[in-house]
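Sorry, any thoughts here?
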Amino acid sequence: MLETVRPEPIRSPVLDGLARFGIRHGFYTRAGGVSEGLYRGLNAGAGSNDEARHVAENRCRIAQSLGADPQRLITVHQIHSADAVIVDGPFAGDRPRADAMATATPGLALGVLTADCGPVLFADGEAGVVGAAHAGWKGALGGVLEATVGAMEKLGAGRRRIVAVLGPTISQAAYEVGPEFRERFLAAEPGADVHFARSSNDGRFMFDLPAYIVVRLERAGVGASDVSRCTYSDEDRFYSYRRSVHKSEPDYGRLMSAILLEEN
């Protein structure tokens, strides 16, 4: 029997403050979905091995909770890139390979999928432009956040009016990396050393992905904030790729974060 509990997204007070411009958003948790087993809850990842009918129902529930037509909940084929696309309607063919979107089209919900990476929702309420980005370490380092801002500016957004909010992401306390990871970061951006702390395991480091994402957003000239939720540490509410690896599980679910400009 399908679960009847409604989705319970985390909301940002910053984005809620733009409700007068018709902006709706949600960083969705596992609550309110129909998936079972490893995917228990609101798994929105068609790339998982979950039952397709469950994923479709979960995505429908997310769209409905935003007030969107389920056919107008848009996601891209995420590839950990720095590519952002401008969207004005559902894709006619294959989804573009990219990791961020921007739109000025009312009624179109932009969704990104994560399971430890950073979901970032953007909005310029005055211009009526919204955006969404999937920012793992590779995308953030490569410039996906800046690319999202650039795509929004092409639609008329003003950089200084844009607000960006980071949703549930793996925290520094749960993100251990090797020395080669740190060296790759420092080669591209020497100042990034402040985002690494030494691990209790010799020669390894703990990486602060949320802080790094917020710094990149601030450097891009937009207002940045973080809901400060760790995906790894809260199994009841969030899916986590890294947790699934540590538990030797064969697969994992995906969380969705989405934003919408209401139709008049």
